[in-house]
Amino acid sequence: YVKLLFGIIFLKKSWNKSLIFDLFLNDFHVYNLKKFNPDFSSIFFNAGAHIQHHYFLNMVGKSNLNPKWYIDSKKDPSQDLFKIYDKILENHLALADKYDLLVLTGLSQDPCLKPSIYYRLKDHKKFFSKFNITFKEILPRMTRDFTMIFENNEQAKSAEEKISKFLTSDGEKLFGTIDNRGNSLFITLTYANEVKKDDKFFYNDKLIDIYDDFVFVAIKNGIHDQNGYLFTSMNVDQNADKIHIKESFNLIKNYFKI
């Protein structure tokens, strides 16, 4: 834990935050396994997927595709990731005399050929009010998504038409996803390039200054892949390699003869 904290504070290894969380979950899980000796227990770790999603290109030797201000090209988060996950696996394999193991990946990821930069609006209400777009409420969602709620369907339709007119200098829509749901709109800020001070954006064909309205979220380095992988102990169904991991619940049912 001290080494991980040192990396965050002094070496700018922000990904260590997720590793600290997974390591804590592991320690808590192993402690309770030993204390209560249950017949079945499961645990989910997310740091690996998180780090791939945001830093995969540095892990596969394509670090030049990430901006220098985002992560030093010499840094490889996989080194920190594998050390912690090796420790986690070691802790669980040490229990092999009492438990059989089923280890699964949450599908997998492939590196992006072109990193996508995620932004969100700093203040959604202030932004759209600045352009006289009428709404009842705005509810920020995950990362780039938000929901706009209106008094009626007509007001939503009018807003949809206006919001579709936010464009880049190349004619790309700033909000490329606008899902009209009657009296509400589900919207995604889909612009995925780095926003620079001299970039030009337009609304209704008029040049607008919205540089300060964006806040950086992350750079997407990995995309989800349907392939998944699993490892089983000898006593677990050895036909496991013939199923997709989304059907792995059947392995558990068969193990307990349910």
Description:
With 258 residues, the chain is α+β, with helices and mostly antiparallel strands. It has 7 helices and 11 strands. It has a 4-stranded antiparallel sheet with strand order 3-4-7-6, covered by helices on one side. A 3-stranded antiparallel sheet has the order 5-8-9, with no helix packed on it. A two-stranded antiparallel ribbon has the order 1-11. β6 (177-180) and β7 form a beta hairpin. α2 runs antiparallel to α3, α2 packs parallel to α4 (77-93) and α3 (47-59) runs antiparallel to α4. It is elongated and about 70 Å long. It starts with a helix and ends with a helix.
Low-confidence stretches: none
Largest sheet: 4 strands, antiparallel
- C-alpha-based Rg, rounded: 23 Å
Number of helices: 7
Helix content: 25-40%
Strand order in the largest sheet: 3-4-7-6
Tell me the total number of β-strands.
11
Average residue-wise pLDDT: 94
Element string (H = helix, E = strand): HHHHEEHEEHEEEEEEEH
Helix/strand structural class: alpha+beta
Strand portion:
15-25%
Assign an overall shape.
elongated
Please write out the topology.
Layout: H1 2-11, H2 16-36, H3 47-59, H4 77-93, E1 102-104, E2 108-121, H5 124-130, E3 137-140, E4 145-149, H6 153-163, E5 166-168, E6 177-180, E7 184-188, E8 201-203, E9 206-208, E10 214-225, E11 230-232, H7 249-255
Antiparallel strand pairs: 1-11, 2-10, 3-4, 4-7, 5-8, 6-7, 8-9
Helix pairs in contact: 1-2, 2-3, 2-4, 3-4
